[in-house]
Specification:
Chain B: Belongs to the activator 1 small subunits family. CTF18 subfamily. The structure holds 2 protein chains of 2 kinds. Chain A is of the alpha/beta class. Helices cover 53% and strands 13% of the residues of chain A. Chain A folds into 3 domains: 183 residues, 3-Layer(aba) Sandwich (Rossmann fold); 48 residues; 112 residues, Zinc Finger, Delta Prime, domain 3 (Up-down Bundle), CATH 1.20.272. Chain A has 14 helices and 7 strands. In chain A, strand 3 and strand 4 form a beta hairpin. In chain A, helix 7 packs across helix 8. The relative contact order of chain A is 0.09. By secondary structure, chain B is mainly alpha-helical. Among the domains of chain B are: 193 residues, no CATH class; 49 residues, no CATH class; 122 residues, Zinc Finger, Delta Prime, domain 3; 153 residues, no CATH class; 110 residues, no CATH class. Chain B is built from 39 helices and 9 strands. The chains are: A alpha/beta, B mainly alpha.
């Protein structure tokens, strides 16, 4: 198994990165009860790890005995019945599921299935752990309707059920749900923390870490612990013993996007202005490449974000603000709309337009 | 016939004169004065007939005798100069009165007899007549020759020829006199009141081929197609359709067509009424040239065959009212067929239609009308369910035909057989070529698309005051639908109003709701109608308003906004518009974004009424980017492709995700899988410093690395799988894989980073190494399952897994020890390798190893690596593979040593074995399977 999984802390006590949060959580569950929890933070910061450790803290090792269940649900929605397929991970005391997997019908998952699960109080006469925990992943992807259904469930069955919600951005979770939960923000680990983790792993693996190498990995990882550990292992596989200036393999999709960014910028160089016909070709080229990324399941938001990132690297300072503004504008539209490609392309065109105008103004 | 062909090409000066004349007069409907002198000989009656009908329109029908008037009521013929009616479609007319047709034929035959009598001046009486005779003379003669044999002429005219002829001359003279004046109104209103019970549509339906208003090119091709049936329908004895005739026809349709275009060009500046024509012009050219090319091929292929044409079905399509049905009827009649029509009003279930077709195809009428039949299936696209039946039957018949030899005599009729071959022409008519029901038919049929005629000259001879502008406007409003034009005119005529533009625009009746195809709509959006707008700005209030209105109606009639906007998106960047700072592009894409947001909102809230704002987006785009030149359009496929591919990949991911054991997968969302995991994982799975050597030759660290690698693969449930080399090379293009059987990752995770035009620097393991890893992985899986069973993972996943790791290590260690004591011999035997090769060949024949094994062995040998420890448990893919005995160069033992591996597992899996195989001849000892199974 990968180091990511191998050195994942199993208990709250083992947690290295978010020690303070882990301590708080430990205190929280020793009180025999816990409120609904909402974990949020960027990916690779350790939300799920903390949740699992927390569950283990509550229920003991039995929480790790999970079985995967792929169930078909038939839901009677008025005139018709809806067939839903949902994968759940369940132990005796908790159920994990991602309601957003079913897409726009997630409302029924929340209304029927979760309610069903929440209703059934586990038969545990000791009264001590008389509640069940539902872990809902990717709550921010739930539709608005589903979130509204959720908040009633949260209140009504709070006696028998605790919800642990997990998402990347709390801004997409409705106010009502947020107020019903204890919000726990999991920061992306800082570079020092990542270095600490890497050194810990290196020590366990018995590796010689040259000075500054871990820091470089941490810097490259964009404060994503998962990515840091994975690239660490990659480096280990690629070349060991480490040298401090060893190449760290990049993410392929990021490389690809930076190629796109180069395409966009290169044709705009002040030396040779293109005839306008060719510029459409660039947009066309970009369209093809963006499609490639989207086909390979890279979410469009990430594409846009990364593209902006790459463009900003090469941009003059005075344009950065405007470009960022437009990127935000188009991302907003993209989320409102359906066909991401329209909006990404519009952003590319807008950028080219801005950049071109800037070049003309600057170099005449 | 010969003389007709002589008259094929009009003299240039005549053409000039014609043009000059029509240029002169604002009123287009005055025929130019005939440029030819009238010959004194007796012209054919047909000409007389037509002249008689033409006269009242031009100069007033006062002089026309009563019997001629009667005739005009029955068959009112609109004759025009050739180059005019070239571009007009005939009024669509379904009920051609048989009597009329017969009359026509009689006249034609009379005409023929006149020719046979050596009478030359067929084209004499008027300029117009002369021209059309020239166009289709060859064909008509063709048809007539045949008809003559079928039907004898009956003298129907009450008056002798001479009397009629005199009258004609008088009229022509009067017309020539009057032509110079602007006076074109006729005073025949009292007469028309008698006849206005009859629909004008029927009244003015063309009844002979030369009167067709539809596109000349199409007419000719239809006729040509019908002609090609002659040899098989009428038999070889009437092989009237000689090759020369066909070639003449072909030449006609090419040269004439080109000529008509030239005329179009020259006419461009003549007057407003031609402007609309020019819009369609490019279309015509494209279409025409394509058709011509196709026809050339077609011709070359078929010219020497006696059988029916290659495409057995003729599919005519076009928007309503262009005269498709009329064309089919007229052309079939012309060629001597008896038309049997099946239209939407008839029962069109599979059984009935089959019976009907069989009827048509196989039987000859015993009645007087013994002409062969021609089936016209009208409105074949009409009802999906019914139409499908018809299509199926036709397909069946055609395919039955295909099975037969091509040069077969088609006269032999197969009575009783269910799927009789098609021996009679079948003409299908549809409005929408792309209707789903027609999809199969499209592939086998010869398709003709009716292009829209230009501003149609639907002349009202019923005494209405009209102006060319008004008529033009009318034609435009009805989308050049002749039927609709006529209906409108009749309606207006009832009110005895004069026709002018204001009327038409205010008339509700003049408008049709037309839903056009998506391609047409895109074309309209991207195409700026400059000429049209100019005219509109003259005639109507504002150009932008008219344009807006037009586009809005167009788009909202279609209604399929999603497709329309997709198409715009797909094609917009192909346009060449002037846009230095890309403002326009930004605007366009913004508008598209708005429409997308709107669409999503509508879909989510189900407020369909908001859809009415969608067309305005497209109109905005039109205002920004519309170009004068014609765009080349593509159907928007990329978004659909993206969708399906995304679905596929997501499915792969999801399936993989579910296979990963939960203690890992719970921490991974599919998104983070893609973002963070895959690239490093691929690196980790193919370490570059992994020496492709035997396990026992690995150093301790290398061995650990391998164990680690295998571990990762098992825990992420990744294996290698045999792939065809071509698909593999597309996946990992930079790796030159020459082997036929190559291994690639089982959940194809490598594909997730194989972007187009992107070269990743991922190292790919050598094939031999992959095989080693694969075996290790398989072994590991089995071990894991067993330990999983025994340990049941009571204490968390990690412990169990560590156990697996430990076990794996121990296995590796034991393998190592075995390998090492074998390894001693390796060096000594290095030189004797060729011997061992041959021996291995012996071995492989002796043992039951599959070819796959030997090929693998060969690869390994080629790399000078000794592959030891091929241990294959019951994870093998086929039966023999389980009992494969791979070679290990190391052991010098004289017999096969069967070493049992993990003794603890023996009872669980009795087939887990380890073979050490020697190289000497002494090894060749048959071993029974059950010896292994101990």
């Amino acid at each position: 198994m990968l180091w990511v999984d191998k050195y994942r802390p199993k208990t709250l006590a083992q947690v290295i990165v978010h020690e303070d949060i882990a301590q708080n959580l430990t205190k929280l569950v020793t009180e025999q009860d816990c409120p609904h929890l909402l974990f949020y933070g960027s990916s690779g910061s350790g939300k799920k790890t903390l949740i699992m450790a927390l569950l283990r803290q509550i229920f003991g090792p039995s929480a790790e005995k999970v079985k995967v269940e792929n169930r078909n649900w038939k839901i009677d929605a008025g005139s018709r019945t809806i067939d839903l397929e949902l994968t759940t991970l369940a132990s005796t005391n908790h159920v994990e599921l991602s309601p957003s997997d079913v897409g726009f019908q997630d409302r029924y998952i929340v209304q029927e299935i979760i309610k069903e699960m929440a209703k059934n109080r586990p038969i545990d006469t000791k009264g001590k752990k008389g509640f069940k925990v539902l872990v809902l992943n990717e709550v921010d992807k739930l539709s608005r309707e589903a979130q509204h259904s959720l908040r009633r469930t949260m209140e009504k069955y709070s006696a028998s059920c605790r919800l642990i919600l997990c998402c990347n951005s709390s801004s997409k979770v409705t106010e009502a749900i947020r107020s019903r939960c204890l919000n726990i923000r999991i920061n992306a680990p800082s570079a020092e923390q990542i270095v600490k983790v890497l050194e810990f792993i290196g020590k366990k693996e018995g590796l010689q870490l040259p000075s500054g190498f871990a820091a470089r990995i941490a810097e490259k990882s964009n404060r994503n612990l998962r990515r840091a550990i994975l690239s660490f292992e990659t480096c280990r596989v690629q070349q060991y013993p480490f040298t401090s200036n060893q190449a760290i393999p990049p993410m392929d999709w990021e490389e690809y996007i930076s190629e796109i960014a180069t395409d966009i910028m290169k044709e705009q160089s002040p030396k040779r202005f293109l005839p306008s016909a060719l510029k459409y070709l660039i947009v066309l080229l970009v369209r093809g490449k963006v499609y490639e990324l989207l086909i390979n399941c890279i979410p469009p938001e990430i594409v846009l974000k990364r593209l902006l990132h790459e463009l900003l690297k090469k941009l003059d300072a005075e344009l950065k603000h405007e470009v960022c503004h437009w990127a935000a504008y188009y991302e907003h539209r993209m989320r409102l709309g359906q066909k991401a490609i329209f909006h990404i392309e519009a952003f590319v065109a807008k950028f080219m337009s801005i950049y071109k105008a800037f070049l003309i103004a600057t170099f005449g | 016939m010969d003389m007709d062909m002589d008259m094929d090409v009009p003299l240039p000066e005549e053409l000039e004169l014609l043009e000059a004349n029509s240029h002169f007069y604002e009123e287009p409907y005055i025929d130019s004065p005939p440029s030819d002198p009238y010959p004194p000989q007796s012209p054919p009656l047909k000409n007389l007939e037509i002249d008689g009908s033409k006269r009242p329109r031009n100069s007033g029908a006062i002089e026309s005798p009563p019997e001629e008037n009667k005739r005009t009521k029955r068959i009112d013929i609109e004759e025009e100069e050739e180059e005019d009616w070239l571009r007009y479609a005939p009024p669509e007319e379904t009920n051609v009165e048989l009597a009329v047709e017969k009359d026509e034929e009689v006249y034609l035959s009379r005409f023929m007899s006149a020719i046979n009598g050596g009478c030359m001046p067929v084209t004499a009486p008027s300029g117009g007549e002369r021209v059309y005779a020239k166009i289709s003379g060859a064909q008509r003669d063709e048809g007539l020759e045949k008809l003559n044999r079928k039907e004898r002429s009956k003298g129907l005219l009450p008056e002798p020829v001479n009397v009629l002829l005199q009258r004609v001359e008088q009229q022509a003279f009067a017309k020539a006199l009057e032509a110079s004046s602007e006076h074109q109104n006729d005073i025949t209103i009292p007469k028309t009141t008698i006849v206005h019970e009859q629909l004008w549509v029927e009244k003015y339906a063309p009844s002979s081929f030369t009167e067709l208003l539809s596109d000349e090119q199409t007419n000719r091709e239809v006729l040509l197609w019908l002609k090609q049936w002659d040899s098989c329908v009428f038999g070889s004895e009437i092989r009237s359709t000689s090759d020369e005739v066909l070639s003449a026809l072909r030449r006609h349709s090419s040269t004439q067509h080109k000529k008509s275009f030239d005329l179009d060009f020259s006419r461009k500046h003549r007057g407003r009424r031609w402007i609309n024509g020019n819009n369609n012009h490019i279309d015509n050219v494209d279409h025409g040239t394509n058709n011509l090319k196709g026809m050339q091929d077609f011709w070359n292929k078929n010219s020497r065959l006696t059988g029916p044409p290659e495409q057995k079905i003729l599919l005519l399509c076009g928007s309503p009212g262009l005269g498709k049905t009329t064309l089919a009827h007229v052309a079939a009649n012309h060629c001597g067929y008896h038309v049997v029509e099946v239209n939407a009003s008839d029962d069109r279930s599979t059984s009935t239609i089959e019976a009907k077709i069989l009827d048509v195809v196989q039987m000859n009428s015993v009645m007087a009308d013994a002409r062969p039949k021609c089936l016209v299936i009208d409105e074949i696209d009409g009802a999906l369910g019914d139409g499908k039946g018809a299509v199926e039957v036709i397909l069946k018949m055609v395919s039955a035909e295909r099975k037969h030899d091509f040069g077969k005599e088609n006269n032999a009729k197969k009575k009783g057989s269910k799927t009789a071959p098609l021996t009679r022409p079948v003409i299908c008519i549809c409005n929408d070529l792309y209707a789903p029901a027609l999809r199969p038919l499209r592939q086998i049929a010869k398709v003709h698309i009716f292009v829209q005629p230009t501003v149609s000259r639907v002349v009202s001879r019923e005494g209405m005051k009209t102006s060319s502008i008004a008529l033009t406007a009318l034609a435009e409003f009805t989308e050049c639908d002749i039927r609709s034009c006529l209906n409108t005119l009749q309606f207006l005529h009832k009110k005895n109003e004069t026709l002018n533009v204001v009327d038409i625009s205010s008339q509700v009746v003049g408008r049709k709701d037309v839903s056009k195809s998506a391609f047409d709509i895109w074309r309209e959006i991207f195409h700026k109608r400059r000429t049209k707008r100019d005219r509109k700005s003259n005639t109507s209030s504002g150009s932008s308003y008219g344009e807006f209105d037009f586009l809005h109606a167009l788009i909202s009639n279609r209604g399929d906004y999603d497709v329309i906007l997709d198409g715009i998106h797909e094609n917009i960047l192909q346009l060449r518009y002037h846009d230095p700072v890309m403002h326009k592009t930004v605007k366009c894409l913004n508008s598209l974004g708005i429409s997308d947001v709107m669409q999503q909102y509508v879909m989510r809230t189900q407020q369909m009424s908001l859809q009415v704002y969608q067309p305005s987006v497209a109109i905005t785009l039109h205002r920004i980017v519309a170009q004068v030149q014609k765009p080349t359009l593509e159907w928007p496929k990329s978004f659909q492709r993206y969708r399906t591919m995304l679905m596929e990949k997501t499915d792969i991911l999801r399936a993989w995700h579910q296979k990963i054991p939960p203690y890992i997968s719970r921490h991974l969302s599919t998104k983070s899988c893609i973002e963070d995991l895959i690239s490093p994982l691929l690196h980790i799975l193919s370490p570059p410093n992994f020496r492709p050597v035997a396990l026992h030759l690995l150093s301790e660290t290398e061995k650990n690395n391998l164990t680690q690698l295998v571990n990762v693969m098992v825990s992420y449930s990744i294996t290698y799988k045999n792939m065809k080399s071509d698909s593999l090379s597309s996946n990992m293009g930079h790796e030159a894989v020459s082997d036929a059987s190559a291994l690639s990752f089982e959940p194809p995770i490598g594909e997730f980073i194989s972007y187009k035009d992107y070269r990743s620097d991922h190292h790919v393991l050598a094939l031999a190494m992959k095989q080693v890893v694969l075996h290790e992985v398989e072994k590991q899986k089995i071990l894991q399952v067993s330990t999983g069973k025994s340990a049941q993972r009571t204490d968390g996943c990690c412990n169990g897994d560590q156990g697996v790791v430990g076990k794996g290590a121990s296995v590796a260690k034991s393998a190592k020890t075995i390998g090492e004591n074998a390894g001693a011999g390796t060096k000594t035997f290095e030189d004797a390798k060729n011997i061992s090769n041959t021996k291995q060949g012996n071995l492989s024949t002796a043992t039951v190893s599959s070819s796959l094994v030997s090929s693998r062995r060969a690869t390994v040998e080629a790399k000078q690596k000794s592959t030891s420890d091929f241990r294959k448990a019951r994870s093998g893919f086929d039966f023999f593979e389980r009992f494969r005995k791979p070679s290990s160069r190391g052991s010098l033992d004289s017999e096969i040593a069967v070493v049992k591996e993990v003794t603890l597992e023996r009872d669980l899996r009795p087939l887990l074995f380890k073979f050490n195989e020697g190289f000497t001849n002494a090894v060749k000892r048959p071993v029974r399977m059950r010896d292994f199974l101990l």
